[in-house]
């Protein structure tokens, strides 16, 4: 049981258990001992659904990473390939099967496509002469993976690139299917709001799927009151900015992948505590001191039962103290402060229409290209495009310093509207910033009273739109919504006959906010802050195609995401 998934108002463990059940059923189809050959990209997401112990219970004895050539030796009856539907992976599988066939003719091969079967892939296996070798060809629909008690992600890395560069709407189809699965488990969502072209597509597909399956609706009282679909491209600025929350900084500096982060081990010694951690330490110490007050056998028993939890909390605290120290070393550096100052100048509209000297210096010092691209894109977004002279200057400097092959990346950033030429003298960003109060001068980071604390003054546009939708509603910002790309809309879904949701007095409404194209940890923190506000009357569950930060986002749009761009 994943306890962290069931603490919230919406028990996301139901979704995890449904995914585990399907996995067990597939494994049981392949009778006998098994080896799984993993498409490496899938190991992280699967780790959130099922640990190795579950696989072991179903006779999985060996696990390998999918690589070309011969498979490692394994004395098993079944070889199961867990793969994404990618043509290049089919060629590797064909090599593996050929090498095995010569040695072990009695083995059974199976293939499990995640998240969907693909006719093209099966055709490629046929062309390679191995399709007939497979006993089972199946699909495992892993659309929405529970990450936390209020967080779901599809971990669809290329979703933004596919939608905005390649005009490929596959990820939107998977999103709609994932939302249908969610409604099958948690009831029909009565209200759907959205902003952006992708949001409109997803809503249309959902409504069409609902009509097609009209007879098979579950009689479940809806857990969610509202679904809000947001295109990433209505708010290009937020992921480009450096996140300033604890989790956001860990992601910016070290990168969080599937809930894990790699940190320098030598730093994990005893360290002094920060303010929030110090407070936590005092609570744990006080709990340990309680042992002196335990007089009766019952009280002693109770104390002993709490010991493992307290010891785990003490060890966790020591780890977080070390992480906080690692982060502090970076956030107190002059380089970090200089970069942040420039970001905040752009966000407040200072000198966004001329060549920025800090960006010039960074190029001259050959700083990482992604750092420069993030700042350039920020300047462009905050200025409704760069003046021709500024744009040409930056372009020339980058190509001369980092290599002419990066012309492809610059073209991609233009296509995605992250970098663009200013075509009209009107800049809408200041209007949007003022109307939606995106910049708060005195953001209180210790005791926050507004979402702007997550970026030390800047309130994420995406989350501000979510906040306004709850109260007073989007009609109050109709003019601003028109300045953002794509349509805004509202749809209502009929609940199955006889189902009416009665709200208890003081009961919060629950909104599922779905970010199409990715979401940052800082945006998640801002939504969690809104959920915790006593007067909000709203609880937010967050879903996304991908958890991202400015670096991973720009990297996904580059044509050569290799060593020289890290």
Automatic annotation (TrEMBL):
UniProt subcellular location: Cytoplasmic vesicle, Autophagosome; Cytoplasmic vesicle, Clathrin-coated vesicle; Early endosome; Late endosome membrane
Alphabetized, the UniProt keywords read: Cytoplasmic vesicle, Endosome, Lysosome, Membrane, Protein transport, Transport
Q: How does it sit in the membrane?
A: Peripheral membrane protein
Q: Which GO terms describe its biological process?
A: protein transport; vesicle-mediated transport
Where does it sit, as one GO cellular component term?
lysosomal membrane
Report the transmembrane regions from the record.
none
Identify the InterPro entries for this entry.
Sec-1-like_dom1 (IPR043154), Sec-1-like_dom3a (IPR043127), Sec1-like (IPR001619), Sec1-like_dom2 (IPR027482), Sec1-like_sf (IPR036045), VPS33_dom3b (IPR043155)
Purpose of the protein: Plays a role in vesicle-mediated protein trafficking to lysosomal compartments including the endocytic membrane transport and autophagic pathways. Believed to act as a core component of the putative HOPS and CORVET endosomal tethering complexes which are proposed to be involved in the Rab5-to-Rab7 endosome conversion probably implicating MON1A/B, and via binding SNAREs and SNARE complexes to mediate tethering and docking events during SNARE-mediated membrane fusion.
Q: Which family does it belong to?
A: Belongs to the STXBP/unc-18/SEC1 family.
Q: What is this protein called?
A: Vacuolar protein sorting-associated protein 33A
Q: What is the lineage of its organism?
A: Eukaryota, Metazoa, Chordata, Craniata, Vertebrata
